[in-house]
Specification:
The protein is mainly beta and 161 residues long. It has one helix at 2-15; strands at 23-26, 45-47, 62-67, 73-77, 82-83, 93-98, 108-114, 121-125, 131-133, 140-148, 151-160. The strands form two sheets. The protein has a six-stranded mixed sheet with strand order 1-8-7-10-11-5, with no helix packed on it. A hairpin with a 2-residue loop joins β10 and β11 (151-160). The protein is globular, with a radius of gyration of 15 Å. It starts with a helix and ends with a strand. Residues 1-20 and 26-34 have low confidence and may be disordered.
């Protein structure tokens, strides 16, 4: 069932040029330590992990993607490179794929901090990991804490200007 849902998500994401942006809020919270890892300057297209390939027609699909630090989630970046402000002809499309089991109806909650410090920016992907458009307020290295279906993982994404 998860493969069918992921396949439908890939087809939906590929078929639309624009999508519904994630819910956006900003909330105060304490800063994170400055010794956090940094973003990669480039996210080359490389073979997706086997668990993230549902819906792709190639046996070894290659896409720009970032894995969570724990390896429980992948951000497959259809709108690579991500931009702030978003480009007029391309959205910041991200397909989130969970390796961990999903609970039906559980959203993907995203807490993002520019360079890992300062005020967090919140985004929510209704329905949990799947297709999304994630716009963040500034260009730079964003440290994301991702929570869904009782799971948590972290990653870093770069938004260019």
């Amino acid at each position: 069932m998860r493969r069918i849902m992921a396949a439908a998500a890939v087809l939906l994401l590929a078929a639309c040029d624009a999508g519904k942006p994630a819910t956006q809020t900003t909330a105060p919270a304490p800063a994170v330590a400055s010794s956090l890892p940094t973003c990669a300057a480039d996210v080359p297209a490389r073979v997706l992990p086997e668990w993230a390939r549902a819906g792709f027609s190639e046996a070894t699909p290659r896409m720009p993607h970032v894995l969570g630090d724990r390896g429980d989630i992948a951000a497959i970046i259809f709108g690579y490179p991500l931009h702030q402000p978003p480009l007029p002809d391309r959205s910041n499309k991200i397909l989130w794929v969970s390796r961990a089991p999903l609970e039906s109806g559980s959203p993907l909650e995203i807490q993002a901090r520019l360079d890992g410090t300062g005020e967090p920016v919140s985004r929510k992907v209704t329905g949990g990991p799947g297709p999304s458009i994630i716009d963040l307020p500034e260009a730079g290295c964003w440290h994301l804490t991702l929570s869904w279906s009782g799971h948590t993982d972290m990653m870093r994404l770069t938004y260019t200007s």
